[in-house]
Structures are given as C-alpha cells and as structure tokens.
Amino acid sequence: MSWHWKELVPIDSYTVQVKVPISDLDMKVLLLLYQPLISSSSVSLYMTLWSKLELDRFQSDASTHHELMLLLKMDLDHLVEARKRLEGVGLLRTFSKESNEGRQLVYELQEPMGPAQFFEDDVLSVFLFNCVGKEKYREYRARFAIPELVHGPSEEKTASFDEAFQSLHHSELVNDPEIYEEGTLVKRRSSQQKISFTEESFDFDLLKTDLPSFFESEKALTTSVQEIIKRLAFVYRVDELAMSAQLQKSLDSDGTIDVSSLRKHVQNWYRFEQSHEPPALGYKKRDPNKQNHQVTSADTEEEKMLQYFEETPPITLLQSISGGAHVPLSDARLVESLLVDFQLAPGVANVLVDYVMKTNNMKLDPSFVQKIAGHWSRKKLKTAAEAMKLAKEEHEKRKQMAGRGKEAQQPKKNQRKEQLPKWMTEKQEELSPEEKSEKAERTAQEKKKFEALLQKYQNTNERKEG
Questions:
Q1: Are 79 and 39 in contact (CB under 8 A)?
Q2: Within this chain, do residues 252 and 305 fall inside the same structural domain, yes or no?
Q3: Most buried of 116, 346, 362, 389 (most Cβ within 10 A)?
C-alpha cells in the first residue's frame, strides 16, 4: 500500500551532511555487520547518500528524490522503507522543513558503531547471530579482533610528549580570533550513535505495580537499567509481568540490578517459554490508516472531500473510486507524472483525478489530464482547496460559454445531464445541530466502510506478496 505520498513526494529536495567523516572501517562494519540486518537496499541508500559528499566536504548540494529513485532503481515506497531501516539502527537522522520552494529534507549520516560496540550491543549482536549463524558470527567477530603485535618479552621505547616537544612562550600560544570563521569544526567522535526505542515501547508503570514491596524501584530502575530492559523486552518479546519476575531474580543484595544476570535470566526465559531458536529481526510496515495528520471537523460535502483529498495518497483515491479494484499500470504512471513531471502537490493531484473521472465517464484520458495539469502547474496551486476553487471557476466559465453558444438552438429532449463531483454541486447552507449530528454519523459510517475496504485491499496485497 502506497502510504508515503503525505510524507514524501519525488519532487521534494534533500541534502546530505555528516559531522564525522566515514572511514574505511565504518564501511566494512556497514557491509559485514549491518547489511544482514537492514538489507542491501538500505546499505545502497546509505552509500549513495554518502557518495553525494565531495572530498573534504561535509554537506552536499541539493538534489531531488526523483533523481535518487533513478540512481537506486527503486520506487518511492521501497526508498522510504530503506530509509526507515537506516533510521531505526541509528545510521541516519532525518530533518524536514517547509518553505516557499516546497518540502526540503536533510539527511545526516551517522557513523556505524565500532566492532566492539556492535558485538556488545544487546539487540544488534543477537539479531546478527540469528541472521548469519554461529560460524559466520564467529568469523566476523574474529575478523575485527586486534591480534597481539608484540611476540615475546620486549621493552617499550615510545617517546613521551616532553621528549618530542619543547615548551613555547605564552605569546606564541595566544590564538588570533580573526583567523576563525563561522561554523562548527569537525570534531573527533566522542560517543557513537546508539539505536533508540520509543517511550511507549515498554510500560514501566505496569512493571512497577507488579514488583514486590521490598523492591526499591527508584534505586534499582536507573536510566541505564531501564534502557537495557527496553532492549531486552524488544529482542525477546518479554511483557511487563514476565520482566518483573526476571528482575526479582537479578536483584543484588544492595538493592541494585545485576545487568549480566538479568540478561541470562531473560535469555533462559525466552528459551523455555518462547523458542529454542534465537529471535529474528523483522521489518515493520507502516499502517496507512494510522498516519499522523490533523483531523478537523467537516460538515459540508466540500469540507469532507477537502479533508479526504489532503490526507489520501493518489493511488488510494483511485482504488477507492474503483471500489478497491487493482489500479492499472497506465493510470498509476499517469498519477505519478502529475507529482513528478507536473510537480503537483498530492492534494491538488487528487482533486484533478476526481474531477476528470467524474466528468469523463470514469475514464482518465491522458491528454485531458495533462492539459489540466499543465494549467494548474502554471497557476502554482499548492493545496486541494485552491484546486477545488479553480475547478469550480473554470467549469462555470465553460458552462457560460456553452450556454451562449446554444441560446439560438432548440434544446434537445432527453439531453444527458453532466455528471459532476458532489463538492462542485453542493449548496453551501447552514446546518442545524441535528443535521450536523446526522451528517457526522453518516461520515463515521462511510469512514468505517472505507477503512474496511483499505484493509481488505492491503490484506490481498500482502497475500500476493507472500
């Protein structure tokens, strides 16, 4: 299901930046340790973004996501999924801002964990073990091990600082402020990025209520311990009540938690309660019905459709108009051209599609669509409301011109009445509270039907992919 249109469209621009240079060792860690977890597509995206940085530069020039899609031979759905996986493991931070030129994103590449940090991580090391198996896991670990360089008894002859340098006069140590320029200098990495979990991933309030009275939660559940609990709960799918039992087994005599003991108890719990196989890492697909967007009250048909146009991906609109049927590839490409070639906002494209289909016997005539798209693109329409207003104005003009041309003609019998979208024909009248309540109820019922239709279509797609 194409849910990404509200968050990202191909014409959106992006720049790449880094705060710490990416080394050859980082690339080896990325390819050998991260790639089994996040897939080759995510690694390709990371390396493509990295290649945008010129030598000794820490920020790239602006490009469009359409160009990125062409470079990776990847559609926008898979591109966003690959980006999410990079963000999930701490390899990428994404920032977005709106301007007069449209949405602009900044991708800040993060250096991979060092080998030692990766193998000590409770989450990533376990999933790597499951992905590659015991033998490869040992092989990768040995590959990054530092061998003993000195053989036999020896004496260190390394020079100290004062043996290599002499003291300078104070005047020679004073920095001249005029030689500095604005901006932050490149810093040596102090602490590498770690993967993070949302606060909602584990209910600590529920955990605390299940702990016995002798358990001093404030002392035992420190910030570092809570972070480990969230990681272990995620990896081994431990709920709050089961975690309570493992914490009680791991309590030291001084009232603190023995972290190594907690890990062993959780691993044993998983082995006996869940599976003898180590847990695997699965990719989470976003539910298109749970996107973050602002929902406003809508009374009139126009307001409801305006809200729908702004919140719905164009492909989903086509599916809903077709009763959930599969969208032909030609129609999908035509809709994509509205967003990529004509650079229309998704809400504007939705209004255009709805208007053309309702006035053209449910057909998307490419020449007609592209003619309107060119006009609306030149008018620089940004929102569905602007598109709906212009559609009404243009339709009224055509209607008046057609009326003047037929004034001298005898009206034909049984002349077919032109079909128009409801939002173009509804009279804007004040509704009573009872009528508003009835409309709200009908809207809720229609929304449930539409969500059920989307869910049915999504399940059908998942079964086909499976």
A1: no
A2: no
A3: 346
